[in-house]
Amino acid sequence: MYELASGEREGKIMEAVSALARSLRDERERLAKRLAELEHELAVLACKLDGQPTFVTLGGRRAPRS
């Protein structure tokens, strides 16, 4: 069976780690963009609710009105 030399093995590992790091960075950026879109959608919906700005909480309860 063919075995990689120590330097080749380390090189392959570094390439794999770099590829994984790029993938994770891309996924983080994609999720951050989607989160920003969802936050904007929530803000629009909150503004439409009763025709006045409202605080949106994620706990399922509405914020008290003043």
Word description of this protein:
It is a single chain. With 66 residues, the chain is mainly alpha-helical. Helix content is 65%, strand content 0%. The protein has one helix and no strands. It has one helix spanning 6-48. It starts with 5 loop residues before the first helix and ends in an 18-residue tail after the last helix.
Please write out the topology.
Layout: H1 6-48
Briefly say what this structure is.
This protein has 66 residues and is mainly alpha-helical.
Secondary-structure-based class equals mainly alpha
Contiguous uncertain segments of 5+ residues: none
Task: Report on the biggest sheet.
Answer: none
Counted by DSSP, the helix tally is: 1
Report the average pLDDT across residues.
83
CA(first)-CA(last) distance: 75 Å
What's the helix-strand series?
A: H
What percent of residues adopt helix (DSSP H or I)?
Answer: 55-70%
Counted beta strands: 0
Radius of gyration, taken over Cα atoms and rounded to an integer in Å: 24 Å
- The shape, in one word, is rod-shaped
Beta-strand level of the residues, as a percent range? under 5%
